[in-house]
Amino acid sequence: MSQRPALRFPSDFVWGAATAAYQIEGAVAEDGRRPSVWDRYSHTEGKVANGDNGDIACDHYHRVEADVQLMADLGLQTYRFSIAWPRVIPDGRTRANQAGLAWYHRLIDLLLEHGITPCPTLFHWDLPEGLEEIGGFRNRDTVSWFADYAALMAQEFGDRVTMWSTFNEPWCYAYLGHGSGAHAPGLRDPKAAVTVAHHQLLAHGLAVQAMRSERDGLALGIVINPSNIVSEGVEADEAEIRMIDGIHNRWWFDATLTGAYPADVIERYGELADAVQPGDVETIAQPLDWMGINYYFDILVQQAADRGLHMPEYPAVVGTEPSPMRAVHTDMGWPITPAGFTELLVRLRDDYPNLPPIYITENGAAYDDPVVDGRCHDERRIDYLDLHLRALLDAIEEGVDVRGYYQWSLLDNFEWALGYDKRFGIVHVDFDTLERTPRDSALWYRDVIARGGLPEHSD
Ligand code: FCB
Question: Where exactly are the structural domains of the chain?
């Protein structure tokens, strides 16, 4: 048995939890909301585990008051959520929907009344289906419709909401949505994937400009999900590992922070990257007030038996495949790699001298521990969070400027293509009754927030 000491975080460090609209809201056809690509995808047979969809999800739309009270009871200082574009501009481009706006006004008011700082994301993958019908993010026009949407949000909520992010994990929307097809809109088309990777960033840059011209004083960022790409002793082609790193990591940080796409990726992509036009990357590289990092695990890869394309989410990477999961992993099959968290943050700081202050905008683990007599003992989640917060503190001690941490997720929710089986919540949701039960991890997290640090821990 080993002992981990009690540890304190900087006193101005902020603590929160995160969710996303389609994963929790439900009420998909209410008050003028129109479908998103995820409504369409989840209602297409065979796409989502158990045929699950977000029609009801956590019914957060109707339970927002009680849910904000729950956040307050846990002592959350900030809450990261996403705005559903199809709720506020149902077809994505023509008309604002007052009822949809009113709902987010209410959420924001409730948060502020409880002293919780709102941190909305504009795009967490639920593109209005009306836009998808005319090419979605493959269509360059969507870039300016996104900027219009961003400007409207700044106008509407910017008097009370300072901290915003434009996109959540644009790698996922581009490459899982259009490369492997594992996410909505479900295409398997490498050129579409690269086009969407570029157009999201261009939309990010234009949105930052549009929001700043709407209002002063906003703190604007983007949320990326970088990972270390590691072969861990197994045979792997270093050049291909570097290419995966380029597509997964450098593409996003180079473009937003250095104003250039990584030359090796652009070269390897060739005509797959035709959507990139002169001047685009300058638009993308707007100064940022902060960056969000979502970290769950290191990506483990190994050499494949042949030089084919084995990972459609990395178009142009050959002869490389995921390596089998480790013995210790979460319900997602994701390995537990806290040292990689520290390493990644230190690397970003070293590689990007103009890296803005960092917020960890997601980190957490799926474990399906049952509720028995009103309690849920989720020791494994507590252990995962404890390990990752210690790793985060190591990065802070090495000088990485990290200002806050959002646990993923407040509630069990619709885990995209994996449906309701994968439970990330510190609060358990019974999807028959919709009852919420804070797990032991929620109570543990409440204490972490209250004391601004970690208790002693023994394994
Ligand atoms: C991230 C997503 C988030 C959630 C977690 C588990 O990739 O941003 O919505 O699904 O993974």
Answer: 3-458
Cα(3) to ligand 1 centroid in Å equals: 31
Q: What gap in Å lies between CA 216 and CA 165, rounded to an integer?
A: 16
For ligand 1, mutation pick of 81, 296, 416, 421 (most atoms within 8 Å of CB) = 416
Check: CB of residue 95 under 8 Å from CB of residue 89.
yes
Which string of b and e fits 149-177 if b means at least 16 CB within 10 Å? Answer: bbbbbbebbbeebbbbbbbbbbbbbbbbb
Count of other CB atoms within 10 angstroms of residue 303: 18
For 295-409, where are the E strands, in sequence order?
299-303, 320-322, 358-362, 402-408
Beta carbon of 392 within 6 Å of any ligand 1 atom: no
Question: What is the dihedral angle through the alpha carbons of 242, 345, 174, 189, rounded to the nearest 10 degrees?
Answer: 20
Residue 11 tokens, joined: 């006193």
Question: What's the token pair of residue 214?
Answer: 């709407």
**Which atom of ligand 1 sits closest to the CA of residue 172?**
7
| Element holding 389 (H helix, E strand) | helix 379-397
Atom of ligand 1 nearest to the CA of 415: 10
Give the active site residues.
Answer: 169, 362
Contacts 24+ apart (CB under 8 A), 264-272: 268/243, 268/316, 269/194, 269/315, 269/316, 271/191, 272/190, 272/191, 272/194, 272/315, 272/316
pLDDT in tens, the chain (459 residues): 578 988 999 999 999 999 999 999 999 999 999 999 999 999 999 999 999 999 999 999 999 999 999 999 999 999 999 999 999 999 999 999 999 999 999 999 999 999 999 999 999 999 999 999 999 999 999 999 999 999 999 999 999 999 999 999 999 999 999 999 999 999 999 999 999 999 999 999 999 999 999 999 999 999 999 999 999 878 889 999 999 999 999 999 999 999 999 999 999 999 999 999 999 999 999 999 999 999 999 999 999 999 999 999 999 999 999 998 777 889 999 999 999 999 999 999 999 999 999 999 999 999 999 999 999 999 999 999 999 999 999 999 999 999 999 999 999 999 999 999 999 999 999 999 999 999 999 999 999 999 999 999 887
**CA 322 to ligand 1 center in whole angstroms:** 19
**What is the C-alpha to C-alpha distance for residues 177 and 204, in angstroms, rounded to an integer?**
18
CA end-to-end span of the chain: 5
Give the Cα separation of 223 and 448 in Å (integer).
24
Between the CA of residue 411 and those of 3, 38, 70, 139, 357, what are the distances in Å? 30, 19, 10, 34, 27
Cis geometry, peptide bond prior to residue 226 (ω within 30 degrees of 0): no
CATH class of the 3-458 domain in this structure: alpha beta
